[in-house]
Amino acid sequence: MIYVVIAFLWTSILLYLILGGADFGAGILELFTSDANKTKTRKTMYRAIGPIWEANHMWLIIAIVILFVGFPSIYTTMSTFMHIPLVLMLLGIIARGTAFTFRHYDAVKDEMQKIYNPIFVYSSFVTPLFLGIIAGSTVTRSINPQANNFLDAYIFSWLNAFSFAVGLFTVAICGFLAAVFIIGQTQEQSERERFIRKAKAFNIMAVLAGAVVFGVSFIEDIPLTTWVFGSWPGVAAFILATISVIVLWSIWHKPYTNTMRFLAGFQVSMILFITTWEHYPNIVLLKNGDALSLLEEQGNAKTIDALAWALLLGSIFILPTLVYLIYSFQKNPATDKT
Q: Where would you find the membrane-spanning parts of this chain (predicted)?
């Protein structure tokens, strides 16, 4: 049953990256939109993220619950040494959701909109930035369980160039996902072309940011290249991701919006697979050379069994309703062929 729990953990992280990433990316797109087009972007964005913005944090909650219940030592280590970026990320989620709600549903349109708008867009940037920083910090061996001062324990555990490079890469991925997702929600050809240009730009930015991640990993002696190219599954995933990028660029101007979304999500899944496969089952690499393993740090066997059954039974109710939620918002999309 432990492998069922691990599969749900990996899947929940992946779905949060894709759906939450598209959600955060909507604000990132607005941040990089000219004033003349901001109003159109917001209206299109409301239609696009409607199906997911209420539900996407469910995947984050599931991942946290799995770690808390099934892998308490891993949860404790991460929540202790990563508590500063975790708090900043959570504050970003709260600020973003609050600003989005008030600026979209507030019955009174007044000067407060000038406050809601920047809170929404900047928190949309900051939140995935710190999400990426946390992810990067788990593999840098910067977490020191023997740290005896505040800076080593709670600052230098995440404050490093590689983690920030991963954070910026995550921001670029979010902007890319949002642009691809929104393409199918546009009502005018000019708007569609505008979001295609943004998708292309963020795709290029993601590739460049990925190159920076590799460069920084070499400088900081993080074996990222070995993790990616050191085994045939990693190489295969890299090749598949590259092919999906090529295919995506070949259909930008064709009405295959669902195919575009699938390819974008597939790229993210391959990236997550590449970065987790080689050091699995280790999920947190520590400075002293040790690692926290999903297999060695699992909780009581009965707890794992109960957690696995809860996840399996819960998915029976959650997944169909989520699919119907997305379907109900897609009844009147822009013309689409798949």
A: 6-32, 53-75, 81-103, 115-135, 155-181, 201-219, 231-252, 259-277, 306-327
Structural domain containing residue 63: 2-329
Here the tokens at position 124 are 């949309």
In this structure, is residue 305 part of a structural domain?
yes
Nearest to 52 by CA among 101, 15, 105, 5: 15
Q: Does 109 score more than 90 pLDDT?
A: no
Q: Which residues pair with 293 in a beta bridge?
A: 282
- Amino acid of residue 113: Q
Q: In this structure, is residue 335 part of a structural domain?
A: no
| Residue 318: per-residue pLDDT | 80
Query: Which residue is it, tokens 């642009």?
Result: 179
Domains in the chain, number: 1
Is a pLDDT exceeding 50 seen at residue 334? no
120 in Cβ contact with 23 (< 8 Å): no
The secondary structure of residue 254, as a DSSP letter, is S
What is the spatial distance between Cα 313 and Cα 201, in angstroms, rounded to a whole number?
A: 41
Q: Is residue 336 one of the residues assigned to a domain?
A: no
Q: Count of CB atoms within 10 A of residue 234's CB?
A: 20
Cα separation, 255 vs 3, whole angstroms:
39
291 membership: H or E segment, kind and range: strand 291-293
Long-range contacts of 33-42 (CB under 8 A, 24+ apart): 37/194, 40/191
pTM of the predicted model as reported, rounded to 2 decimal places: 0.90
Rg (CA), the chain: 20
**Among the listed residues 208, 225, 207, 220, the one whose alpha carbon sits nearest the alpha carbon of residue 160:** 220
The pair of structure tokens assigned to 3 is: 């492998």
Token digits of residue 220: 């900081």
* Numbers of helices and strands, H then E, in the chain: 14, 2
